[in-house]
């Protein structure tokens, strides 16, 4: 009799444990590591010549997306789309990035983000790293700069709380306002700077001039973000609620400043060293997960905000056998593939078969829809309007449920891709590669049509041969503009009037 009772108790307990495991699987921890200005050829599991063993480990233990793209070929708009699932060109930012420290936040106060969505599923949410979507600083009244105060940002009252990511769904923020070459040079924790920016930034570092906290050192940022991330994981490991950590790094964006420990580690010079240090941060995150036995049911995603910047001195890297854009045309800022096709790898041992890859056409806008699918928290009709979940692909790499995608360059040029056909509504790169905006040869067609199945390097413009395809794709893009969305649902409004034809002006 007692044996029967014990058997029943054991059965009940095992069922409870199984049920608990299944419940936990529906709310995995999520970590998204977002590098800055890093091309598809910059990782060593593709063609890269700088060692990136930790990023390679994610690929070996997870799934690699070979046709993944950011919504824009520059960082502010790409970051907006990653967090909202909405194409960046629907916002008030028609081209370029946020440069001035006093620019208002691009995210609207009540706008749904991945963080606010996950909070509805009882996640703790944090961002550690670069924001670059605008900080709502309070300005000093009638402030006049002194002669030694060069650059922007001196008219901000840094003693006052600011509008930061904590206003858009994040429980915790530790990082910097924008890129590592943009003032102010100071760390922000939640809504306040940790040290008042009161001196000029280091003149030896290639950055925009502006105020800096006295102790701020650009070359230490990656170490700081790694330490803060590990501390965050250590703390959350003891909590019942799952966590979402958004880790947007400042590298290998300019200034290219690998720390002393990493200088000379690669054969590529400072850029290669910075790539290796970026990979080291990834390794620190993976190590922390292993330490707390969190790896099995934690989704780790790694990608970048756009392609490699020309500031990396790409021709010199290519002479050493390293091509940041791989076999793609263009780089950061461009409408060509090298501007926005990026590394994208995901590890989730509970769900993803190790060492797999998929050619699913994917946009970073899809992240929020995937989180919605995983947690069961539905997006309202006005949110994630350009997001298509890739959860089915994580479970089966042959599932490819996105048919088209819209790209955007630094000067506001558009392209639309459907299947392997890509139409660029500009005569050149729309960015920094030749032909630059305004420098296309006289008589050049105003649009470019490429068949990526036969011409991944975008060398043959087929617009004259297939005018019906040009018309079809133009009509599709215009419909997405007019409907305020590219997914099924109620018609939405863009934040501005959107013209799909570029003025072909430099940016």
Automatic annotation (TrEMBL):
Residues annotated as domain Sulfatase N-terminal: 28-377
GO MF annotation terms: arylsulfatase activity; metal ion binding
Region Disordered, annotated ranges: 484-507
Endpoints of the signal sequence: 1-19
Entry keywords, A to Z: Calcium, Hydrolase, Metal-binding, Signal
SUPFAM superfamilies to which the protein is assigned, alphabetical: Alkaline phosphatase-like
Name under which the protein is recorded: Arylsulfatase A-like enzyme
Species this protein is from: Mariniflexile fucanivorans
């Amino acid at each position: 009799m007692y044996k029967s009772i014990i058997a029943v108790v054991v059965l009940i307990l095992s069922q409870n444990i199984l049920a608990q495991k299944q419940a936990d699987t529906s709310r995995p921890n999520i970590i998204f590591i977002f590098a800055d200005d890093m091309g598809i050829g910059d990782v060593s599991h593709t063609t890269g010549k700088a060692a990136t063993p930790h990023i390679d480990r994610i690929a070996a233990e997870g799934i690699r997306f070979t046709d993944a793209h950011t919504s824009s070929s520059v960082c502010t708009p790409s970051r907006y789309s990653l967090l909202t699932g909405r194409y960046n060109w629907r916002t008030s930012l028609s081209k370029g990035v946020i440069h001035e420290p006093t620019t208002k936040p691009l995210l609207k106060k009540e706008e749904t983000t991945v963080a606010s969505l996950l909070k509805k599923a009882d996640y703790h949410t944090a961002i550690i790293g670069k924001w670059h979507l605008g900080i709502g600083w309070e300005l000093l009244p009638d402030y006049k700069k002194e002669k030694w105060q060069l650059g922007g940002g001196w008219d901000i009252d840094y003693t006052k709380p600011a509008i930061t990511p904590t206003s858009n769904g994040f429980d915790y923020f530790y990082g910097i306002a924008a890129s590592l070459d943009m003032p102010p040079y100071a760390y922000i924790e939640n809504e306040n700077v940790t040290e008042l920016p009161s001196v000029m930034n280091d003149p030896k570092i290639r950055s925009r001039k502006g105020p800096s906290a006295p102790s701020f050192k650009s070359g230490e940022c990656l170490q700081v973000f790694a330490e803060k991330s590990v501390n965050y994981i250590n703390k959350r490991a003891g909590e019942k609620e799952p966590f979402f950590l958004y880790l947007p790094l400042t590298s290998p964006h300019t200034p290219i400043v690998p720390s002393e420990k990493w200088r000379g580690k690669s054969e590529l010079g400072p850029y290669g060293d910075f790539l290796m240090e970026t990979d080291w941060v990834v390794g620190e995150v993976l190590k922390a997960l292993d330490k707390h036995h969190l790896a099995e049911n934690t989704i780790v995603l790694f990608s970048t905000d756009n392609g490699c910047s020309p500031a990396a001195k790409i021709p010199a890297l290519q002479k050493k056998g390293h091509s940041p854009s791989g076999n793609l045309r263009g780089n950061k800022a461009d409408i060509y593939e090298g501007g926005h096709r990026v590394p994208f790898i995901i590890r989730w041992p509970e769900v993803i078969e190790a060492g797999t890859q998929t050619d699913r056409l994917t946009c970073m806008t899809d992240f929020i829809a995937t989180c919605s699918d995983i947690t069961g928290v539905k997006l309202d009709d006005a949110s994630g309007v350009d997001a298509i979940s890739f959860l089915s692909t994580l479970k089966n790499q042959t599932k490819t449920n996105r048919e088209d995608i819209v790209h955007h360059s630094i000067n506001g040029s558009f392209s639309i891709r459907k299947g392997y056909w890509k139409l660029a509504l500009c005569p050149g790169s729309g960015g920094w590669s030749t032909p630059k905006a305004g420098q296309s040869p006289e008589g050049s067609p105003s649009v470019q049509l490429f068949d990526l199945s036969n011409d991944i390097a975008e060398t043959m413009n087929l617009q004259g041969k297939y005018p019906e395809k040009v018309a079809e794709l133009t009509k599709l893009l215009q419909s997405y503009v007019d409907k305020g969305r590219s997914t099924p649902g109620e018609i939405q409004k863009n934040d501005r009037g959107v013209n799909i034809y570029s003025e072909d002006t430099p940016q």
